[in-house]
Specification:
This protein has 585 residues and is α/β, with parallel strands linked by helices. 64% of the residues lie in helices and 9% in strands. It contains 18 helices and ten strands. The chain has a six-stranded mixed β-sheet, sandwiched between helices. Strands 2-1-4-5 form a four-stranded antiparallel β-sheet, with helices on one face. Strand 9 and strand 10 (554-559) form a beta hairpin. Helix 2 runs antiparallel to helix 3 (58-106), helix 6 (162-209) runs antiparallel to helix 8 (220-272) and helix 6 (162-209) runs parallel beside helix 9. The chain is elongated and about 120 Å long. The two termini are 48 Å apart.
Length: 585
């Protein structure tokens, strides 16, 4: 993992922290200072009080005890203030960071999500948010308290015994060097482990989300074996990483034990020679134990930063990568007055296969309110045309215009709000039917909602459900049949009431009776709207104003149903060879 990614992670977190910098800096100061007071200054004052007893100075003892009580009270109050500020700060930042990160991920184009395992991506998103909280806790609660306590404690010991102080100081420097070396040696092990846990989560999510397919093919054992294989690889990586860490920790523990024994021997010699007081000796012995535990924590602190930054790295890499499809500076809103669509010399190829064109020299003009059907074999480029129109993909060359406006010069949001889209396989949110349908128009009235449902012929099955519109449809709409999901998607598009309509196999999942009803409802829906209808079932598009036959990325036939049959070209052959109203593949 590069240092640049770590720096980018810190920058991303700082953008959120600075929004609430007052609570951040209060916590940043109050927590370490309270720790120094309670863990270092207070024990030192009490050791001095013990020393005053040895010397028989009662007035000094009273002063030291009063001062100790005051410092204890200050320390407790600062601790309370610090943690209250930290809790407030973390809750604010966690919420903002989550929303901002989600916003930036949603700016990615569809190809980004197509190349991700959603389970792994979700896990990394959660890791990224949790890493921020972990880093903040590590900084405030452990790092600064360690630096302040060890720094002040070492200074006190040095001021009383140069020899003892030098031993402690040397130990700190030595441990820092060994920890730094250990991190370098463990980097590949830790990175491999983190990469594999992402694969473990992604594989499990993939298996669970496709459980019906797994069961349908009776491949439970196969899936378990695949998951077991990746889990075994993770197990090996985990053992290698933590085996190294255990060796490192044991070595550090041995070193600190030796240092403690040596230090106590030095203290004994200094006491015998009256070079330090009993109070100082008590403080040093107690403090050495404290330093020993703190120094052991030092390795955990440094490793903690490495672990949390590594945990955040995958999402950081995604966020710093600029979105491939963006709004141009100064992009305005699309204004659809008529709904004229024009493709001008449009070519398209995917970035990872630029030599293979999906669309070639598409020149197409669709009049306002015209209903156009796209037919052709699978992979011919029909759906690609609609994806380019909605800027789910960007044209390789050429341009697309709506009412004379290049769609690359308007905002993506205004473009897509002007288009109602029903896909071949509609995916619903794990929410109620009401929420899913209302997604087409968030401020729709109850009357508008019910009208859209009725027009889409969805009222028939919704009214039979015990909870009606409040029925939760399950993950991706799994509780509904394919036809029911399609009708919900059509109702959503009807409710949107956009000037441009795209139907990508919108009736493919319906039974014959429902299809007839839907076809009847789509007629008024398409009236006075520029409509693009993709279909394999030719009966779906036979009555449209115009039909385009797409083959191998080009328009090979263009005309009405009757014109194309009379022309006796590709469309006529498809019509003759169709079976049950479908195009032969």
């Amino acid at each position: 993992m590069s240092k640049n990614i770590n720096l980018e992670t810190v920058k991303l977190y700082w953008q959120q922290i600075k929004k609430y910098k007052v609570s951040f800096f209060i916590a940043l100061i109050a927590i370490p200072v309270s720790s120094v007071i309670l863990d270092t200054i207070l024990p030192y004052l009490l050791s001095q009080a013990v020393g005053s007893i040895e010397l028989g100075i009662s007035s000094r003892l009273s002063d030291l005890l009063l001062l100790s009580a005051a410092m204890a009270l200050i320390g407790v109050l600062l601790n309370f203030l610090g943690f209250q500020s930290m809790i407030k700060h973390e809750s604010n930042v966690r919420s903002d960071l989550s929303i901002d990160t989600l916003d930036r991920l949603l700016q990615k184009d569809t190809s980004f999500f197509n190349n991700q395992k959603i389970g792994a991506l979700t896990g990394r998103f959660i890791d990224f948010i949790n890493a921020h909280v972990g880093l903040q806790d590590l900084l405030m609660i452990r790092t600064l308290t360690f630096v302040f306590n060890v720094g002040l404690g070492t200074f006190i010991i040095l001021s009383n015994s140069l020899l003892l102080g030098s031993v402690v100081l040397g130990l700190i420097v030595f441990l820092l060097l060994t920890i730094r070396l250990s991190i370098k040696l463990r980097k590949n092990l830790r990175h491999a482990r983190k990469e594999l846990i992402g694969q473990v989560n992604g594989m499990a999510a993939d298996t669970i989300s496709n459980n019906q397919t797994v069961k349908a093919f009776g491949n439970e054992d196969y899936e378990l074996e695949k998951n077991l294989d990746i889990n075994r690889r993770y197990q090996i990586a985990y053992r290698k990483d933590f085996r190294w860490m255990s060796f490192e920790g044991s070595g550090r523990l041995l070193l600190m034990s030796i240092v403690q024994i040596v230090a106590i021997a030095i203290i004994a010699g200094l006491l015998v020679n009256n070079q330090i007081s009993l109070g100082v000796a008590i403080f040093v012995i107690a403090y050495l134990q404290r330093v020993a535990s703190q120094l052991f924590v030092l390795g955990e602190i440094v490793n903690g930063y490495d672990k949390l930054l590594l945990q955040a790295a995958p999402i950081t890499e995604m966020l710093v990568e600029p979105p491939r499809i963006t709004d141009r500076p100064g992009a305005g809103n699309l204004k659809v007055t008529n709904g004229v669509i024009e493709f001008k010399q449009v070519n398209f190829a995917y970035d990872d296969a630029k030599d293979t064109r999906v669309l070639s020299d598409i020149n197409l003009s669709i009049k306002a309110g015209q209903r156009v059907g796209l037919v052709g074999p699978s992979g011919a480029g029909k759906t690609t045309i609609t994806k380019l129109l909605m800027r789910f993909n960007e044209v390789t060359s050429g341009s697309i215009e709506i009412d004379g406006q290049n769609i690359q010069t308007v905002t993506q949001q205004s473009l897509r709000r002007s288009i109602a889209f029903v896909s071949q396989e509609p995916i619903l949110f794990h929410r109620s039917l009401r929420e899913n349908i209302s997604y087409g128009k968030l401020d729709a009235t109850e009357q508008e909602l019910l009208s859209a449902i009725k027009t889409a012929n969805a009222d028939e099955f919704i009214n039979k459900l015990p909870d009606g519109l409040e029925t939760v449809v399950g993950e991706r709409g799994v509780k509904l049949s394919g036809g029911q999901r399609q009708r919900v998607a059509i109702a959503r598009a009807i409710l949107k009431d956009a000037p441009i309509l795209i139907l990508d196999e919108a009736t493919s999942a319906l039974d014959s009776e429902s299809e007839k009803l839907i076809q009847a409802s789509l007629e008024p829906l398409m009236k006075n709207r520029t409509s693009i209808v993709i279909a394999h079932r030719l009966s779906t598009i036979a009555k449209l104003d115009r039909i385009l036959v797409i083959d191998d990325g080009s328009i090979v036939d263009d005309g009405s149903h009757r014109e194309l049959l009379a022309y006796d070209g590709v469309y006529a052959k498809l019509w003759k060879h169709q079976s049950g109203g479908f195009i032969e593949e």
